[in-house]
Amino acid sequence: MELDQCINFVLTKAQQSVYQLFKTELHSYGVTPGQYGILKCLWDKNGQTAKQLAEQLFLDSSTVTGILDRLENKGLVKRQPNSRDRRSLQVVLTNKGRELEGPLSQAIVRANQKALLKLEDDEIKQLQQLLGKLTPQE
After folding, report:
1. Does residue 24 register a pLDDT over 60?
2. Which of 64, 75, 95, 99 could pair with 54 in a Cys bridge, judged by C-beta atoms 3.0 to 4.6 Å apart?
3. CA 36 to CA 58: how far, in whole Å?
4. What is the secondary structure of the chain as a DSSP string?
5. Of the candidates 75, 116, 121, which has an alpha carbon nearest to the alpha carbon of residue 97?
6. Residues near 52 by Cβ (< 8 Å), separated by ≥ 6?
7. In what order do the strands lie in the sheet with 89-93?
8. Which of 116, 107, 128, 113 is nearest to 32 (CA)?
9. Would the pLDDT of 138 be above 60?
10. Which residues, 6 or more positions from 106, have their beta carbon under 8 angstroms from its beta carbon?
11. What would the mean pLDDT of 32-52 be, rounded to a whole number?
12. Do residues 21 and 112 make contact, with C-beta atoms less than 8 angstroms apart?
């Protein structure tokens, strides 16, 4: 099979291209696409555990732990005891982390627009539907 016929190669190539767009848009805020994912989850529902974040983002626990360490070092999140389960920690946004919601959301919109620039509206919808079919359903 030729590489350009291998779905894994084609998706990886597209993902790397899109990732670079997102990385560029987020760079001036000192945030990576992975860190944005964590922040977005916390903006939607603050006080989640690392395990909950990992499940939402389809990442393994060690990857999330590393991202949380970097976000904590930047003063964007903090980990604190979970009031419902003392055995786990909640991840909560700091004021600095909350203040980034607007600017980072706008940067993500710009990155999405750039990534989809060559596609018509109906092609964008079709792409989203097709990619959804490749994703395991819960």
Report:
1. yes
2. 64
3. 14
4. --GGG-HHHHHHHHHHHHHHHHHHHHHTTT--HHHHHHHHHHHHSSSEEHHHHHHHHT--HHHHHHHHHHHHHTTSEEEEE-SS-TTSEEEEE-HHHHHTHHHHHHHHHHHHHHHTTTS-HHHHHHHHHHHHHHSPP-
5. 75
6. 41
7. 48-49, 89-93, 77-81
8. 107
9. no
10. none
11. 96
12. no
Q: How sure is the predictor about 2, in pLDDT bands with cuts at 50, 70 and 90?
A: confident
Q: What is the CA radius of gyration of the chain?
A: 17
- Contact between 35 and 86 under an 8 Å Cβ cutoff? The reply is no
| pLDDT score recorded for residue 105 | 97
* The pLDDT value given to residue 19: 96
pLDDT digits (tens, 9 = 90+) for 61-99: 999 999 999 999 999 999 998 777 778 889 999 999 999
- pLDDT at residue 118, rounded to an integer: 95
Q: Is the pLDDT of residue 137 over 70?
A: no
All domains of the chain, ordered by start, with CATH?
A: 3-134 (1.10.10.10)
> Looking at the predicted structure, is the pLDDT value of residue 14 above 80?
yes
